[in-house]
Amino acid sequence: MTTEARLLLQQAMTDVLRHSLPSSVPVNQLAAVVVEQMCRQMGGEAWYIPAPDRAPRDAAIRRDFNGRNRDALCRQYGLSRSRFYEIIQTRNPR
């Protein structure tokens, strides 16, 4: 793992921990230890981190769309207009 990749992983881990643990926990130090141990135990392997399941989000968007609230839903879910329309047009998701 390159130094840059290691730092990116550590930052991602820090963000996850910061949002998941009480503020009294030193998440920067914890993230550094976790990344170091992951590199020692799994270094050299390809890691696959799956994207979250977006089916519930997409179903909520289709349910909440009333024909006039596209911009509000795009802001709420952080979507581009083109992605919004892809979701709306998908009647039978996978």
UniProtKB/TrEMBL annotation:
Pfam families referenced in this protein's UniProt entry, alphabetically: Mor
Please spell out the taxonomic lineage of the organism that makes this protein.
Bacteria, Pseudomonadati, Pseudomonadota, Betaproteobacteria, Neisseriales
SUPFAM superfamilies cross-referenced by the UniProt entry: Homeodomain-like
Write the protein's name.
Answer: Mor transcription activator family protein
Domain of life of the source:
Bacteria
Boundaries of every Mor transcription activator domain copy: 11-89
